[in-house]
Amino acid sequence: MEKSEVLALVDKGEMLPLMEEFYTIQGEGYHKGTAAYFIRVGGCDVGCHWCDVKESWNAATHPPTHVDHIVDNAARYSDTIVITGGEPLTWDMNPLTQKLKAKGLKIHIETSGAYPLTGTWDWICLSPKKMKLPKEEVYQKAHELKVIIYNRHDFTFAEEQAAKVNENCILYLQPEWSKREKMIPEIVDYVMKHPKWKVSLQTHKYLNIP
Fold first, then answer.
1. pLDDT by residue (tens digit) across 32-80?
2. What is the domain count for the chain?
3. EC number(s) (predicted)?
C-alpha cells in the first residue's frame, strides 16, 4: 500500500498507530481488578513530564494497523476493551469502536480529553492534564475523573476539574508513581477530609503485571 493511502486511512481512523495490545488486569480506578484487553494507540502531544509511556508520544514510531486486525485480536481475549495511549482521541475513534461494538464488546477509554470526543463508549475515564485541558464535551460525558497527584498544587487542580464534570462522575486521586511514598499519606488525609474523592492506586505495578 502506498504511503499516501496509509495516511489517508489513518486520517479516517480506519488504521491506527498501534503501540501495543495485551490482555491483563485493569489496575486503576473504578474497574481495578477486572480482566480487560488493552489497546495502546501511539501519538500524544500533551507532554506530561512524569509520563510512564513516553515511547507512545511519537505516532510515527508505531506501525499503522488496520482496525479490523485490532478488533479481531481483541475479540479473542475479553468482552471488555480499554483504549489507551498516548492520547487515543488524537485519532478518529469511530471506526474502531463501531467494529468493537459490532462484536458485542464493552469499550472503555482512558483519555486526557484534550481532543474532541469521537467513538462510542461504555466507560470514559478522564484524566485531565494542566498542559492541555479537556474539551467541554468530555467533562460532561466522563464516568470517572482520575487526577494524578504529583505535588500539593495538584489538589487545587483536582478541585478545579471536579467542578467541571457531571454530577454522577466518580472522583479519584491517584499518586504519580515516582512520588507515591510522599504523596499517598497526603492523598489519604485529603480524601478523609473531602470524602467525595476516592483513592486510586496503580495496583498493577504492585502486582508486577503489565
1. 999 999 999 999 988 877 777 778 888 889 999 999 999 999 999 999 9
2. 1
3. 4.3.99.3
